[in-house]
Amino acid sequence: MIVRIFKSGVSNGESPVKYLLGNTDHAGNERAVKPEVLEGNPQTTIDVINSIQRKYKYISGCISFRDSEKPTKSQLYEIIDDFKKTFCPGLTGDNFNSLFVLHKDKGNTEIHFVFPNQILANSLHGSGRRFNIHPPGKQNIQFFESFVKVTNQKLGYAQVVPDPLKIAFTDFERKTPEGRKDKSNKRWIQRSVIKAVTNGEIKNRDDLCRHLDENLGITITRQGKDYLSVKLPGALKAKRLRGALYSEDADYQGLITQSIASKQPHYLSPTEFKAEQIKLNEFIHAREQFNIKAYLTPRPMRRFAKQINPHLTTTTRRTTMAKADHLAVMKRIIHEALFISRKKPTPPTPVRVVPNVKTIRSNVTSIRSKALGATKSPATLDLDALKMTIAEVETNLHQAIGEMNNAKNPADAAKLQQRVIQLKIQLEKLHAEMMAIKIKFGLSTNTPKPK
Fold first, then answer.
1. For the chain, which residues score pLDDT lower than 50?
2. Backbone dihedral region of 54: left (phi > 0), alpha (psi from -120 to 50 degrees) or beta?
3. Which positions are tagged coiled coil (predicted)?
4. Which of 42, 134, 354, 423 lies in the 20 to 30 Å Cα band around 395?
């Protein structure tokens, strides 16, 4: 078993979920076995991803088993549970969203997963913050490797021993028609080089470059520390060859020996297993402390020291320009909230009006009449606009909760649950904007938190 993380995460929510649940694979071939959702709600995952405004919106990957490894359904659920506890320690299902889908169309077992990169609105202190189960860095790679080693040992599976002669393909080469041509060329080069190394024709990098030039007609355009840039016959652009074979200090006979050894089953000794468990627990503890501090702990209020002998600074940016920028941002937030709030859920279901709806609507009318009747400062006008929007979103949120509680079937309940999540997210944004305005103009910040 091994965990692979895909190089994706910038598309809309429909893209990864459509691939996970589609009846065809990345090459367009019909899947012999249809995908099966093991955990999560596909539509909710789509909605959460689409609510994220940052560039990197989600992490996707798969837990892949060898053809000889046949985990039971019960074991699959245990692995999913361990995966979430390992890489999301300290958090609960209310704090983050995830989707796990079973694939068996390639002959082996694969658990594909998607994690939106955002803490949910249900979280008290971390709502809307960036969340990443696979952050960049060497330590995180070691974290995942440790999880793989411990899990394989627990399940009685052989450890994953890297083969230095195995070709590593990019997602582009594996999933696109143009990339598959590069993939075929890499295989051709690799086979020729391995054969020459085995026959003793290649003993150093100079021999390797000579072999590529004289026997394969490949032009070397650049030699890096751990790669070669080459132009294939008739090609306009150079391609980069990476891997142990193309490193400047490669030990070719040693690579052959390591490759043969990697094909033999290897298991951890009791001492190695215990050491790996300790290492994994240390990784989990470190991430748990980070999650608690980042998402579950109230943020301290920023303190501003009094400025002594302030110096006036000349600027070419006019105050009206700054106000215009702020107004544009506020209008966008209000427009987005009202658009989602006024969007009618489908299919409609009977509504049970909650007790405080009339009161809220009365407040909306009162606020609107006051806003139109008096001369107010820009800050007060901004707050009035936000208050009216918040009141309307709260009204629709209470209505959606009432409809969800009285849904006739699970399908209607699921759709209404998604609407509740969307409205809560917008409510969080509106309250955050109101807090920003109050801090900016030195107004009281004692406002009730969104429900």
1. 319, 321, 348-355, 374, 447, 449-451
2. beta
3. 383-433
4. 42
